[in-house]
């Protein structure tokens, strides 16, 4: 559904006749919606008392803090909502609007699945914007995108406050690429994530955030405390990670005792062949890893030490699926042949892809 605000009256009147709605999907993308329009959407939502599943797409409009606050108020009567997905990226709601929206959503205490896409909203948070999340006692899955929001390390310190009280959280996705959280920010975020004691699935996108070897080490040291974690997708692409950082990262991640699937994206860093081989030597010590995807595109890898990188692969005896990306390095065809030959030692491997 794509309407401008003049059509909201018709939409509202039509939906008002449907008092038993449990699933509602509304799309107003690039519709020039402002704060008045979003207030009318809030009224539409508030009138659906039995609603359990809401999908709201309102990206690329002109919504400010006022509109976000009004939208939050629309959730106060939707206490049966269990699944909420809101895409409000490319607006102007900023940190105050984000906080007001989430505070309003706090009335939906039965929510189990929550997705918030807040990309490109000039949030620049230095406050606890997620405090209202603490009311979501039944929350199991939460995906939060704050891409391109000028977050710095100070904002990262408070970013996940309130989420620690969601003791049932099992799956968490945090997408904060293209900000400037630096080493201290990555430390604070991973410290907060390590407190989610029932977390089994984690997706963490930290690419392009000026993170160095110190930050990389902190990420590994904090995430190893997530003892129930089975799935980890971690991106540190396009930061300032060298071979020391990759070694320390591997040392931390291999201590996640129940980890079975690891997607690790380290492309566009100066890791080199030696750093990559040291990373593998640590990760190979994890005896439960079954699926491993490793991104090393444009990592300054050369023929020197590449044979050692290949050698380390034979130690991943529990792997059933392996994917490695080596594009834009200085590896010859002969080197790739050596790599593939090492895989013969992996008796359980049934799927392999080399890019």
TrEMBL record:
InterPro entries with a match to the protein in the record: Leu-rich_rpt, LRR_dom_sf, RanGap
Family matches, as SUPFAM superfamilies: RNI-like
Record key words, sorted: GTPase activation, Kinase, Leucine-rich repeat, Repeat, Transferase
Annotated GO MF terms: GTPase activator activity; kinase activity; small GTPase binding
One GO cellular component term: cytosol
Pfam families in alphabetical order: LRR_6
Domain of life: Eukaryota
BP term (GO), one: nucleocytoplasmic transport
The name this protein goes by in its record: Kinase domain protein
Origin species: Tetrahymena thermophila (strain SB210)
């Amino acid at each position: 559904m794509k309407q401008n605000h003049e059509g909201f009256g018709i939409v509202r009147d039509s939906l008002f006749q449907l008092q038993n709605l449990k699933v509602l999907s509304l799309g107003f993308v690039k519709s020039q919606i402002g704060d008045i329009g979003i207030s009318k959407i809030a009224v539409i939502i508030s009138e659906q008392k039995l609603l359990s599943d809401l999908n709201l797409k309102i990206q690329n409009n002109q919504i400010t803090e006022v509109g976000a606050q009004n939208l939050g108020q629309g959730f106060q009567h939707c206490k049966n909502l269990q699944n909420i997905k809101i895409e409000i990226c490319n607006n102007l709601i900023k940190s105050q609007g984000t906080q007001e929206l989430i505070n309003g959503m706090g009335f939906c205490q039965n929510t189990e699945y929550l997705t918030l896409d807040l990309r490109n909203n000039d949030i620049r948070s230095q406050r606890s914007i997620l405090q209202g999340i603490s009311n979501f006692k039944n929350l199991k899955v939460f995906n939060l995108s704050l891409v391109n929001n000028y977050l710095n390390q100070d904002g990262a310190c408070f970013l996940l406050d309130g989420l620690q009280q969601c003791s049932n959280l099992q799956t968490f996705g945090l997408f904060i690429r293209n900000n400037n959280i630096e080493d201290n920010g990555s430390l604070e975020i991973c410290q907060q994530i390590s407190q989610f004691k029932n977390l089994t699935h984690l997706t963490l996108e930290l690419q392009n955030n000026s993170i160095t070897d110190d930050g990389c080490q902190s990420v590994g040291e904090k995430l190893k405390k997530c003892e129930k974690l089975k799935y980890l997708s971690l991106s540190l692409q396009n930061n300032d990670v060298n071979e020391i950082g990759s070694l320390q990262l591997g040392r931390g991640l291999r201590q996640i005792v129940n980890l079975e699937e690891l997607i690790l994206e380290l492309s566009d860093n100066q890791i080199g062949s030696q750093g990559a081989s040291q990373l593998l030597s640590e990760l190979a010590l994890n005896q439960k890893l079954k699926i491993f995807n490793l991104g090393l595109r444009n990592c300054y890898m050369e023929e020197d030490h590449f044979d050692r990188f290949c050698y380390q692969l034979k130690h991943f005896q529990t792997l059933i699926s392996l994917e490695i990306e080596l594009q834009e390095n200085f590896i010859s065809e002969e080197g790739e042949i050596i790599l593939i030959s090492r895989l013969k030692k992996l008796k359980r491997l049934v799927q392999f892809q080399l890019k």
